[in-house]
Design brief:
The chain is an alpha+beta fold. It folds into 4 domains: 1-39, no CATH class; 45-270 and 526-692, Multidrug efflux transporter AcrB transmembrane domain (Multidrug efflux transporter AcrB transmembrane fold); 277-415, 2-Layer Sandwich (Alpha-Beta Plaits); 440-494, Multidrug efflux transporter AcrB TolC docking domain, DN and DC subdomains, CATH 3.30.2090.10. It contains 28 helices and 8 strands. The strands form 3 sheets. Strands 2-3-1-4 form a 4-stranded antiparallel beta sheet, with helices on both faces. A hairpin with a 2-residue loop joins strand 6 and strand 7 (474-480). Helix 3 (76-100) packs antiparallel against helix 6 (121-136), helix 3 runs antiparallel to helix 10 (205-213) and helix 7 (144-169) runs antiparallel to helix 22 (526-556). 37% of the residues are buried.
């Protein structure tokens, strides 16, 4: 005997599972000898592994950030000051999550893993500027407190604007609706909470700790790595400022080339989450008996159990009318429990095993319509479109025979589409039915209503609850219906006594399928979610970019500088597209979120570079001199902010645990986008700054 436990909407999954396990332990103590309740499937393992994947990425990313910051700063105290903002920013995010009612899950914690590099950006810019002033003004007779204050004020405004822009770029995620909104809004909330905390810490805690940790007159030399990079970068800057047209031309060609790759990217809603458990839904011909379904279920289990990666199987025949999803006895649902991925054969991947099981079942257990998926994925697909599949073509009309014909033609076309697997038409006919048509005149003669007749037929054939029987603290429902001998044939049913008054595809379908008037096709499933999400982002992202542009204009009070910094956005897109193409990943909603995230960091680097060059010009430097000096002095903070953001995502990029494939497109886009946007900040922006530079005028006071 098997059973299901369903949790209520809004309850905590982990808590429910703990309570259920505790109750099972209590029940096992009271069961007779030889009986035992065991959980054959639980989401607790999936939840634990998914969160574990993100926690591991957070830890590894933090270590990488720590090491890289030390290499750039060359001072353990300044490195620890920056790193100290990480746990405090995360703590700030956790407190905000608790207040807002957000749970710790794959997407919310994934937001922290994605934002780990962004969290330290403000602190990096602040401590780097303080450290640079200590290096350059070590001989001045000025207190550390004053020097730190001057350094902090110098970069406070750019930091506020830059991190504010990063937060704003995540606004589109708050507007997503449906499934995509449920998936990605927790990520947007946690990133925003963490960045707000990081901003407050960068403006308050970092200057305080710096004033307590450093002193004037000490040895504050640039580390060897920075000196080496400056030696490489200086001739590059000196060269590019002399040939802005060539540099800009190469950048534009690179951007145009990436756009040419765009049509070759596949697309999907969200990469399939590897749940660590398979579920096979096998449909027998209509009218199949319970005995036949049991035999097929055992055959399916014997085939699947032969794979060494499988630890056990459980088959369920049909499903009772509970939970809103009853199934008849011609449906066999087989749950397949798997070993941890690190115990699999080296030449077998998660998707390979699915394909091999499907092929083996098709060969050795013919005659079944199999859908090999995963428990949560199957349930989600069914909730989206009523059918347990990722892409559903729903055909509407008023004639079952005509619908069946069109369905077969659509299925045949779908099978020819590259990448389509497990294509089948859902059964809409074929099962024998008994149609009861009441003779109204005869019924009227005996004073019997239609409702009375149909109620008698329903109770006699299908059965109906007739009361409860109590046995101590236990209760049992009485279920009444006629014996098999009185309901097993049409002749017997005719004798029932009655009581009287005393008691891509879309285009090919349009071109090749003959669709009569009144019939039409609608596509649903995850494809519907993808279209809705992309349509929403197509509206909201341009609005967000316009808002970013307005903030840049407000920060610099110049249309020229706003345009100059905004150039980082298209070049961030360049790297993201190329990264998706090279890795073979599809354009999905997580990838779109990655593009949104990279916009913020790209703009931050541009703000840091341009604001400092402008500051040098205010101090009296000519344009070219200010560009050369400003670019060299801002090499370290630009490389640090971009590098820590990239390094923070490397663990997610390389992870292979449960849930990692959902985050991988996002991490891929951010890493690729940051590489190209950083090149633009360090090479293209200094080269073309002279085109956008406004004239400086001396004003006598």
């Amino acid at each position: 005997m098997g059973g299901y436990v369903m949790k209520l909407i809004g309850t905590n999954t982990s808590q429910v599972l703990e309570d259920v396990n505790a109750k099972i332990d209590d029940l096992n103590k009271s069961l007779p000898e030889g009986l035992k309740i065991e959980a054959y499937y639980s989401q607790a393992e999936l939840v634990g592994k998914a969160i574990g994947t993100v926690e591991k990425a957070l830890l590894e990313g933090s270590v990488l950030v720590l090491v890289f910051l030390y290499l750039f700063l060359g001072n353990i105290r300044s490195t620890l000051i920056v790193v100290a903002t990480l746990p405090l920013s995360v703590l700030f995010a956790f407190i905000a999550m608790r207040i807002s009612g957000l749970s710790a899950n794959l997407m919310s914690l994934g937001g922290l893993a994605i934002g780990i590099g962004m969290m330290v950006d403000g602190a990096v810019v602040m401590i780097e500027n303080i450290f640079r002033h200590l290096e350059e003004r070590s001989e001045e007779k000025v207190s550390v407190l004053r020097l730190v204050g001057e350094s902090a004020r110098e970069v406070a405004r750019p930091i506020v604007f830059a991190i504010g822009i990063i937060i704003i770029v995540f606004l589109p995620l708050f507007t997503l609706q449906g499934v995509e909104g449920k998936l990605f809004s927790p990520m947007a909330y946690t990133i925003s909470f963490a960045l707000i905390g990081a901003l407050l810490l960068a403006l308050t805690l970092v200057p305080v700790l710096a004033s307590l940790s450093f002193k004037m007159g000490g040895q504050h030399k640039e580390p060897k790595l920075v000196l080496f990079l400056n030696r490489l970068y200086k001739p590059v800057v000196n060269t590019v400022v002399k040939a802005p047209k060539i540099v800009m031309g190469v950048a534009v060609i690179a951007f145009a080339g990436s756009l040419l790759l765009f049509p070759y990217l596949g697309s999907e809603f969200v990469p399939t989450l590897r749940e660590g458990t398979f579920q096979i839904r096998s449909t027998l011909p209509p009218g199949a008996s319970l005995e036949s379904a049991i035999k097929y279920g055992k055959r399916i289990q014997s085939v699947v159990d032969e794979f060494p990666e499988v630890t056990g199987t459980y088959a369920r025949i049909g499903r009772a009318e509970v939970g809103g999803d009853p199934e008849s006895v011609n449906v066999v649902a087989t749950l397949v429990n798997l070993k941890p991925l690190d115990q699999w054969r080296e030449d077998v991947s998660y998707e390979d095993l699915q394909s091999r099981i499907a092929e083996s079942l098709a060969e050795r257990v013919p005659g079944l319509a199999n859908n090999l998926s995963q428990p949560i994925q199957l349930r989600t697909d069914e909730l989206l479109s009523g059918v347990q599949a990722q892409l559903v073509a729903s055909i509407f009309g008023d004639d079952l025979d005509e619908l069946g014909r069109i369905g077969k033609e659509v299925a045949a076309l779908a099978k020819e589409v590259p990448g389509a697997t497990d294509v089948r038409a859902q059964q809409s006919a074929g099962k024998k039915q008994i149609v009861i048509r009441p003779d109204r005149e005869v019924l009227a003669q005996f004073g019997i209503s239609i409702d009375n007749l149909m109620s008698t037929v329903e109770t006699g054939i299908g059965g109906k609850g007739a009361g409860l029987v109590f046995d101590g603290v236990r209760r049992f429902e009485i279920f009444a219906r006629l014996q098999e001998s009185y309901r097993g044939s049409i002749d017997e049913i005719r004798k029932l006594p009655l009581r009287g008054n005393s008691g891509e595809l879309r285009k090919r379908i349009e071109e090749q399928v003959d669709m009569p008037p009144g019939y039409f096709v609608e596509f649903g499933g995850q494809f519907e979610n993808q279209e809705r999400a992309m349509a929403r982002l197509a509206i909201v992202v341009p609005i967000t970019l316009a808002l970013i542009f307005l903030l840049l204009f407000s920060a610099f009070s110049s249309l020229r500088y706003a345009v100059l910094i905004f150039m980082n956005v298209p070049f961030a897109i360049t790297g993201g597209i190329v990264a998706l193409f090279v890795t073979g990943l599809y354009l999905s909603v997580p990838a779109a979120v990655g593009f949104i995230a990279v916009f913020g960091v790209a703009v931050l680097n541009g703000v840091v570079m341009v604001s400092y060059i402008n500051q040098l010009r205010d101090e009296g430097y000519e344009v070219i001199e200010a560009v050369k000096l400003g670019a060299q002095r801002r090499l370290r903070p630009v490389l640090m902010t971009a590098s820590v953001a990239i390094l923070g995502l490397i663990p997610l990029l390389l992870a292979d645990g449960i849930g990692s494939n959902v985050q991988r497109p996002l991490a891929t886009v951010v890493v690729g986008g940051l590489i190209t946007s950083t090149l633009l900040t360090l090479v293209v922006l200094p080269s073309v700054y002279q085109w956008f530079a406004s004239e400086r005028r001396d004003v006598e006071v």
